[in-house]
Amino acid sequence: MYNRGEKIFYGQTGVCTVEDISEKEFKKGEPQLYYTLRPLYRSNNIIYAPVENAKVYMRRLISSDEAKQLVAAISAIRAKAKDELTCEEDFRACLESHSCGELLELAAGIYRIKQEAKKSGKKIGFTYEKYMSRAEELAFGELAAALGVLPDDIPALLSKEKKYVKTQQKLLTNR
User: Fold this and answer.
1) Residue 61 binned pLDDT confidence (cut-offs 50, 70, 90)
2) Which CATH number characterizes residue 38's domain?
3) Is the distance from CB of 22 to CB of 8 less than 8 angstroms?
4) Where would a tag sit more exposed on the chain, N or C end, judged by fewer CB atoms within 10 A?
């Protein structure tokens, strides 16, 4: 059970704050314990989720240390090869994994495809854009909540880390 004030990862919504835990009677004669959740990055929404909920995935957020490890490992995250990123079912399965690392991997793979297309003067398709955007929204939201920053700050953190790693690799090879 989660506690009031705790931030959790909720289904395809992403990071939510548990605002309350109380009995509600949404079905006649069947009071049930519900979480009142407020999506962190869509604060005008309220979600009532049964505490005993087997339909929608809920979990605790990654820790600050885990988030820092993911950011530090961004250069080592293996972006999926183009032929691995061709099936919408695979995209959906990755989103449904609810794993911050897998979401980053998906976003990185599609981003690489987007960069390759851009070099050729092309654009990626709607499906790629849609899933890259969702993967980024969910992963960046969780990283931001764990690190105490805004989701818009995450791309700069990831980019900064990649540049740092590339600089260190160049320094090591020039010795």
Assistant:
1) very high
2) 2.40.10
3) no
4) C
